[in-house]
Design brief:
Layout: E1 3-4, E2 15-17, H1 26-38, H2 48-86, E3 93-97, E4 100-103, E5 109-115, E6 121-128, E7 133-137, E8 145-151, E9 164-173, E10 179-180, E11 182-189, E12 192-196, E13 199-204, E14 207-210, E15 214-222, E16 228-234
Antiparallel strand pairs: 1-2, 3-11, 3-15, 4-9, 5-8, 5-11, 6-7, 6-9, 9-10, 12-13, 13-14, 15-16
Helix pairs in contact: 1-2
Length: 254
């Protein structure tokens, strides 16, 4: 829809915005202001205070528009840095917030998580890529800290699961039966980098890990006889907050 200025004609100079516009920009605001001055009643001109107020609004609109453009430039700059840094992760093992992993037929997998306090009971549920329940692991009492529980790759009927992508949740309770906070994480070797939706993702086979979810990178130092010692180096990327497993629902990266 085309909106025109007051009058019998609809010439381009009187248009406030075209059919593709949905919001009013600073150019449209200035055009409206000038048109208002050109068509004011000479016997009853606009009040100076009203005119100054409109100029102040225009100035504020222009400043906000400039700030928005500068923020877009900064965002693009930060994105380009992330894209360049992400390439350095290829071939390295990273620790990241998340709960998705892949298994092959007859293959086990280590479930990794952290407990903030000592737990009287821990429940680990495994789901397939459709969110369907597969099985539950109950390792029992566990102390606060990082833990690894091995899943043998079978369902609740001890039948080996099909190769594919799976996820897990971790729920813990204290001695009073109260739910405790837990944090799930994965350790995967990065095989590639993906860029889409304005974000950077690290690829671990078919699993996409958001760059912001990286917690640490495994660094291997070569030894004297070809053997090396490995250690985790904290990543400069901010940790994502979507890995908490208190909800009891499968966690998947979108």
């Amino acid at each position: 829809m085309t909106v025109a200025g007051i009058g019998a004609t609809t010439s381009p100079t009187n248009m406030l915005y075209d059919s593709d516009s949905t919001t009013m920009g600073k150019d449209d605001f200035l055009t409206l202001l000038v048109t208002q001055l050109q068509n004011q009643d000479p016997l009853n001109p606009a009040e100076s205070t009203e005119f100054v107020s409109q100029l102040a609004q225009f100035s504020a609109l222009e400043q906000m528009s400039n700030v928005n453009e500068n923020l877009k430039i900064i965002q693009l700059f930060e994105q380009s840095i992330n894209n360049a840094q992400a390439m350095n992760f290829i071939g390295k093992t990273v620790r990241a917030n998340g709960s998705m992993f892949e298994v092959e037929f007859n293959e086990s997998h280590d479930i990794k998580f952290q407990l903030a306090e000592d737990a009287a009971a821990v429940h680990i549920k495994i789901y397939d890529n459709l969110g369907e329940f597969i099985t539950e692991l109950e390792p029992g009492e566990m102390a606060a800290g990082e833990h690894t529980v091995t899943w043998d790759g079978t369902d609740e009927n001890d039948t080996p699961v099909s190769p594919g992508t799976y996820s897990f949740t971790v729920a813990a309770e204290n001695e009073d039966g109260e739910t405790m906070p837990t944090a799930a994480y994965i350790e995967e070797e990065i095989t590639g980098v993906s860029y889409h939706d304005g974000n950077t993702y690290l690829m671990a086979e078919d699993i996409e890990i958001p760059y912001s979810a990286i917690m640490a990178v495994e660094e291997v130092e070569e030894g004297g006889e070809g053997e090396g010692e490995s250690g985790w180096v904290d990543s400069t990327a901010e940790s994502a907050s979507g890995s908490n497993s208190e909800t009891g629902e499968p966690v998947t990266w979108q």
